[in-house]
Amino acid sequence: MKFACAVQSHRQSTAKRLARVAVPRAARSSVFGCLVTAVLCAPASFAQSQPSVPSAGEPSASVNIGRDIVVVDGDTLRSIARRELGRRAYAGFIAEFNSMQLDDVLIAGSTLRIPINVPARGEAAVVVYFKGAASLNGSPLEDSAAIVVGDSLSTGTDGFISMEFSNGSVVNLQPESAAVLQVLNCLEEDDSCVIEIQTTNGDLTSDVEPRSGQTLEFRVTTPYASAAVRGTVFDMSADPESLRVTVTEGLVDVAALSASVPLDEGFGSVTNAGEAPGQPVELLPAPAFRNVPGRVAAGDTLLWWPLSDVGTYAARVSRDSAGVETLADVVASGDRIDVAAIAGVEPGEYFLSLRGIDDNQLRGFESSTRVVVAGIEPDLTPPTITVTREGNDTLVNVVEPAAGAQGFEIQLSESEDFADALTVDVGRLGTAVFRIDNDALFARARRLASPTAVSAFGPIAQTN
């Protein structure tokens, strides 16, 4: 077939509109005689039948038919994608189809071309856990939600989100955080895995897992700096003024203003907006717990040996040792914390992690311990005990143990605040023998209805 290439003046507007339709390289051959000009001069039906060129890294599935819409006041590419194609994630395809950038400002009254078919790789991250105020593209998050390119996640003051990628990498969003999945090319058959997340504010923690034989490029970007990760466990905290990155395993490159600073394991840095990346700072060591009782209830405290010149600690309570199913992330002062008093922590078994916070607000290495949280049952009468010395032994007895008791928790301490108490669970008889080389001892006990349901502590007894 031969196409006429003379363009009449009354057809110029049509040609301009059709010029936005990308032409595959295969079509740019002598088969069509006039090359690209043939498309500009052809009837609209021919031009619309040509598939657009996929961008680098995108699948070859076609974006092959388009239609025009008129932009209205307040429109963005993301809002149009949701209105016209059902998902904000398709904004990138509309931008590509119109040779635009994703964040270009749209002018009301202008015409935009909408692809009818969009590429689909079948690739997404999956939300494996969320709690509290958590949203996807402005709507409440749902269990096992799929996160695709262009999707935005955000959390409120009590919100947590954990999403997992196909290679096993996990990203956790802490309260008051926002992130957008910008790039995801990480299928198992891909030569490399590329993941990019953009954030403007909040705290993110990541455990990045490369596949065997597949190179990994994992990036987190902010408006003024970025962190490129290679097989790493790291944290970052972003706000409009600064980016803080700490590395507890692996390597991260922090880049800003054409400068780059590598962070090895055990180092962090602070990058201020408009400045080059801050130099590496050695992270604080992990604090050590002083004593972890068999269970804690409201009013009980867990203590640790304080680090030198450190006054605040980041404490996280989660259902799993990896910290994916996080219930609370709080800042504790001093050397103790009442886990059971933290909002959202119900009776059950948890993991408590602890990290010191330095003068740069960088979090150090982490200590973690298993904690059983018990609820206090007001209907259970607190037991009374006696403490007697018999040679080198200290004998503790519950006075008239309740017939229905499942057992008793007994604590023995050298100080009345029970800061370093020795804790044991005993049977229904309520008797325990301790061998402690100290004549002045304090003891108390509480009744057990179950491992996570107890009475309050009874009165404190003291050796004579």
Under CATH, the topology of the largest domain is which? Jelly Rolls
Beta-strand percentage range: 35-45%
Which structural class matches the secondary elements?
A: mainly beta
| Largest sheet data | 15 strands, mixed
Report mean pLDDT, rounded to a whole number: 83
Q: Which value, in Å, is the CA radius of gyration?
A: 31 Å
| Uncertain parts | 1-63
Anisotropy-based shape: elongated
CATH architecture of the largest domain: Sandwich
Can you describe what's shown?
- The strands form six sheets. The chain has a 15-stranded mixed sheet that branches.
- Helix 4 (77-85) packs across helix 5.
- It folds into four domains: 1-50, no CATH class; 125-282, Jelly Rolls (Sandwich); 288-373, Immunoglobulin-like (Sandwich), CATH 2.60.40; 376-462, Immunoglobulin-like, CATH 2.60.40.
- Residues 1-63 have low confidence and may be disordered.
- The chain has helices spanning 12-18, 36-41, 44-48, 77-85, 91-97, and strands at 66-70, 111-115, 125-131, 134-136, 139-140, 146-147, 152-155, 160-164, 170-173, 178-185, 192-207, 215-221, 226-238, 242-256, 259-264, 267-272, 281-282, 288-291, 302-305, 312-318, 326-333, 336-337, 348-357, 363-373, 375-376, 385-390, 393-398, 407-413, 422-426, 431-434, 442-450, 453-454, 461-462.
- It is mainly β and 464 residues long.
- It contains five helices and 33 strands.
- The termini are far apart.
- The protein is elongated.
